[in-house]
Design a protein that fits this description.
There is one protein chain. A hairpin with a 4-residue loop joins strand 10 and strand 11. 1% of the residues lie in helices and 60% in strands. By secondary structure, it is mainly β. InterPro entries: Beta-barrel_TonB (IPR000531), Beta-barrel_TonB_sf (IPR036942), TonB-dep_rcpt-like (IPR039426), TonB_rcpt_CS (IPR010917).
């Protein structure tokens, strides 16, 4: 729930968004399916959030941005070997600025700090997993710096847009999963921090009925830091992040042309992704490889598409995915499940 306000403060335009949310969730085995081994996870989590976002027009070229939030949660483990009840409140905030030296260019910077509380899976015991009694919330500290450009009528009736941004995210008290051989179980606790750093780029150009879009992502580095130990540039064994490591580099190019007063559209997309940003750590012994890493390989994928407006009530779409029938596994996949090979699709949409 939210409500926006717009008013003048010291003769300057001010926008404020006030809101809040509430979440209640419950998990447990279906009736009649309770087992003692392995222990079933059962629990209730409640979480609230109250926030305020503001934007102040300092000058015709400078906007100031700020936000504040208050969050709280409670988690009750109702399993037969429960963890202790968890209750926490935390604050988050952000500050930033936008600067427009000319109409077509905007520079921006932003710093934010936001808490994340443990989920039911992370905070309640069950299925050979035990939550630490002193499990704390994560705090993400994020720095964003970037710029955007927008130009019109460079040659004719055309439009060029370009965005580039740098991000540096440090997650304090990162919630991690590890294998404890002496207890023969997985353990959920906090490590010191995790860090993600990279650059994102997007651009588009449109002239008449022709459009081309391109994007690129590059991760400068990812590291995980356990308490009292040196940071490592590899995933932690048995941690959930094992299969959520993005590619070092990824690019995409999308081209589209429209004909016959925009009734026929023909386009295609080329996508490339590199290997993982950081290597996989050696899994442990025994049951530690319960979360084995999915080591996807670099791949280039080509997709084609077309759309025809037959009349105001009827549209036909035809696509060919993975034109060259490449065998590949999608990045950030939790299993060795290959993506579909060359796939043809024909669809008809009718409206009445």
């Amino acid at each position: 729930m939210s409500n926006g306000l717009e008013f003048d403060m010291y003769n300057k335009l001010t926008n404020v968004l006030l809101g809040g949310s509430y979440l209640a969730e419950k998990t447990g085995p279906a009736k009649g399916f309770w087992t003692q081994n392995p222990h079933q996870r059962e629990g209730i989590k409640k979480e609230y959030r109250i926030f305020a976002d503001g934007k102040y027009e300092l000058t015709s070229k400078i906007n100031l941005l700020a936000s504040i939030e208050n969050k709280g949660y409670s988690l009750e483990d109702r399993g037969d070997t429960p963890s202790i009840p968890k209750n926490e409140t935390a604050y988050g905030y952000s500050v930033g600025a936008e600067y427009k030296p000319i109409k077509q260019v905007m520079l921006y910077s932003r710093y934010s700090q936001s808490p994340r509380f443990p989920s039911l899976v992370e905070g309640a015991n069950g299925f050979f997993m035990k939550a630490d009694d002193n499990l704390q919330h994560e705090t993400m500290k994020n720095i964003e710096i970037g710029s955007s450009f927008g130009f019109e009528n460079l040659m004719a009736d055309d439009e060029l847009k370009f965005n580039i941004g740098y991000f540096n995210s440090n997650i304090d008290n990162y919630i991690s999963r590890s294998w404890q051989w002496d207890k023969f179980s997985m353990h959920i606790d906090n490590i010191d921090r995790a860090k993600f750093e990279g650059v994102e780029l997007e651009t588009s150009y449109k002239i008449n009925n022709f459009t081309v879009k391109a994007s690129a992502n590059y991760y400068i580095g990812i590291e995980f830091c356990k308490k009292g130990k040196e940071c490592v540039n590899e995933n932690l064994p048995s941690d959930y992040a094992t299969n959520h490591i993005p590619p070092k580099k990824s690019y995409s190019l999308d081209v589209n042309q429209e004909f016959f007063n925009n009734k026929l559209s023909i386009g295609g997309k080329v996508s490339y992704f590199d290997k993982r940003t950081i290597p996989t750590a050696m899994v442990g012994r025994g049951s530690a490889p319960l979360l084995a890493p999915v080591d996807y390989k670099p791949a280039t994928i080509v997709d084609l598409r077309s759309s025809l407006i037959i009349n105001k009530n009827l549209t036909a779409d035809f696509t060919v995915d993975n034109v060259f029938d490449r065998y590949y596994i999608q990045p950030i996949n939790v299993g060795y499940i290959p993506s579909p090979g060359r796939t043809f699709r024909l669809g008809i949409t009718a409206t009445f």
